[in-house]
Specification:
The complex is a heterodimer of chains A (322) and B (209).
Chain A: H1 16-33, E1 38-41, E2 57-58, E3 69-71, E4 102-105, E5 108-111, E6 120-123, E7 128-131, E8 141-142, E9 145-148, E10 151-154, E11 163-165, H2 173-176, E12 190-192, E13 195-208, E14 215-227, H3 230-241, E15 247-248, H4 253-258, H5 277-283, E16 289-301, E17 307-319
Parallel strand pairs in A: 10-13, 11-12
Antiparallel strand pairs in A: 1-9, 2-3, 3-7, 4-5, 4-8, 6-7, 13-14, 14-17, 15-16, 16-17
Chain B: H1 11-32, H2 34-50, H3 53-59, H4 63-68, H5 75-88, E1 91-95, E2 104-108, H6 115-118, E3 125-126, E4 132-133, H7 135-141, E5 148-155, E6 165-173, H8 187-192, H9 196-208
Antiparallel strand pairs in B: 1-2, 3-4, 5-6
Helix pairs in contact in B: 1-2, 2-5, 3-5
Classes of the chains: A alpha+beta (322), B alpha+beta (209).
Chain lengths: 322, 209
């Protein structure tokens, strides 16, 4: 008999379902990077139609002072270093400023450590550079960077909630033309494809782990694999479904919070010495997650440019305090 | 006072005599209780299937009934017909045990094709335009696929066929993931999952009768 709830210490803490979702997203994001899930964009690199992939556009996002926010053609830039895949992503070596080494303003390079008029920060998830001071319209700003190809996101970012942005690799005049087209939707509200959206199914099974306490906690997880063509969709479905019986290490968000070591700050900027997923999991270990019961549920074609597939897996965690 | 017991037959002979005695008793009780087993199976199946959240939602005409567009008043009938179809598809097969205790006492539940359920008329709803919506197929076989694109379900009392809500433009519709099913994992398979103990208890009761 007890007067205490078990399985968590404090209602302010992150609990299991959210821990599972966060860790699955971060695990896939990290593990895909190490399998080459990025494209490098060097300064002045041009598309076949002559547009510069590295050139940033002035954002129409009203949350920023006009002239301070400049965004790239693709969001979700790489900030993590030490990626196993070659060639490496374009990130600098300054651990106090993880990510790209700086930006070109009117063809002059300014490192991320720049102070004064051109001081800036990089919001990697949204693929944009935010300056402390406004720069005039027409300023030529370029950034050498790497963007992630497959975006691993939360399911509440799936298309029926967000504006899907098709052909986001194809840089064109519309990208630089303000107040026109879906580029004017802020990156927070658009989803670039291909993407894997992770959804936790609100149903749970619990069974005994060992004499004396502990439980296997099983949570079903849906992976919505979304792409602009059938081949890419099939690739995503293969990548996810083949992780059946894969066990991976996780981090405990509560330990990360206690140590004040979240790698990204409230603005989306990596903090000094930011830990990537692997180092987070090694430093602040949570309960390992095992995937099982992988099944593919449906492969849909919706419209001409939207291909969806759903993989369902069970995430099994051993909770010793349940 | 002390007794001495000497076994004069070899163990194999004693063993086969015990098996013969047990098999005779088992056969006698299973034959005598075949009707009882079938009646108990029927009761258990009804209880297990009716207890599924999907059946409660439809039978009590709650959210899922609205989402599936089941006409007001038809939810309980739909549940009854599903439950009775599952009961009808179950069987108890018995083949006498011989002196080596070789025999069959087998309970069969729900064919994996689900044709007995997919063929039910109550699993369909007709729209005003005459379109046929096979909602039981959505629930049993279609998993988490998007069923309708361009419309989403909006709960609102008094609207739609169910009087619980209707489709509005925008978004998409699918079965809620906690209730979605495919042939290997749906509300019927979940109804039978983990029921081994109940079945064992049934046989224990039969053999003790």
């Amino acid at each position: 008999m007890s007067f205490h709830l078990k399985g968590f210490d404090n209602v302010q803490e992150s609990t299991l379902s959210n821990e599972i979702q966060d860790n699955i997203i971060e695990f896939f994001d990290w593990a895909l990077l190490n399998k080459g899930n990025y494209f490098n964009v060097t300064a002045g690199e041009t598309a076949p139609n002559g547009y510069d992939y590295s050139k940033l556009r002035l954002s129409q996002n009203e949350n920023f002072t006009a002239g301070t926010c400049w965004e790239g053609v693709r969001s979700n830039w790489v900030w993590q270093s030490g990626i196993e895949s070659t060639p490496s992503p374009l990130v600098g070596t300054n651990n106090t400023k993880p990510g790209i080494s700086g930006v070109y303003i009117n063809d002059t390079f300014y490192p991320t450590t720049t102070t004064g008029s051109y001081a800036h920060h990089v919001d990697y998830y949204n693929g944009r550079v935010v300056f402390d001071n406004a720069l005039p319209t027409g300023t030529k700003i370029q950034a050498e960077h790497s963007y992630k190809w497959i975006n691993v996101v939360y399911a509440n970012e799936v298309p029926w909630l967000r504006e899907v942005q098709y052909r986001s690799y194809d840089i064109n005049g519309e990208f630089f033309n303000q107040s026109k087209g879906d580029w004017d939707i802020p990156p927070e509200a658009r989803l670039q494809l291909p993407a894997i959206a992770v959804e936790i199914v609100p149903r749970r099974r619990i069974s005994g782990f060992q004499l004396g306490g502990g439980s296997f906690v099983e949570t079903d997880v849906l992976f919505h694999c979304i792409a602009e063509n059938e081949l890419e969709r099939n690739k995503l479905v293969d990548i996810v479904s083949l992780q059946n019986e894969r066990t991976f290490s996780t981090y405990d968000s509560n330990l990360v919070a206690d140590a004040d070591e979240f790698p990204i700050d409230y603005r989306g900027f990596p903090v000094s010495g930011a830990l990537d997923f692997k180092r987070l999991a090694l430093t602040h270990a949570g309960a390992a997650i095992r995937f099982k019961n992988s099944s593919v549920q449906g492969m849909d074609v919706i419209g001409n440019s939207f291909y969806g597939g759903i993989v369902k897996m069970t995430a099994e965690v051993i909770k010793l305090n349940v | 006072m002390a007794f001495g017991l000497k076994l004069i037959d070899p163990f194999s002979v004693i063993d086969s005599r015990i098996n013969a005695a047990i098999s005779e008793e088992v056969n006698k009780r299973l034959i005598r209780n075949k009707g009882f087993i079938e009646a108990q199976m029927s009761k258990m199946i009804q209880m297990w299937v009716r207890a599924q959240p999907e059946m409660l939602e439809i039978g009590l005409e709650k959210r899922l009934a609205g989402m599936l567009g089941i006409r007001k008043g038809l939810g309980p009938t739909a549940v009854d017909s599903i439950v009775m179809a599952v009961v009808a598809a179950s069987s108890f097969r018995f083949a006498r045990f011989d002196k080596q205790m070789r025999g069959v006492a087998e309970l069969n539940f729900q064919p994996t094709t689900f044709l007995n359920l997919l063929g039910l008329g109550t699993g369909h709803t007709k729209t005003k335009n005459g379109a046929d919506l096979h909602w039981l197929d959505w629930l049993l076989m279609q998993g988490n696929k998007m069923i309708v694109v361009g419309y989403h379900y909006e709960p609102e009392s008094g609207r739609g066929r169910s009087g619980l809500g209707a489709m509005d433009q925008g978004g998409a519709f699918r079965i809620p993931p906690e209730m979605a099913g495919v042939s290997t994992d749906n509300f019927i398979t979940r109804a039978f999952s983990g029921k081994e103990k109940d079945i064992m208890n049934l046989f224990q009761r039969v053999l003790a009768r």
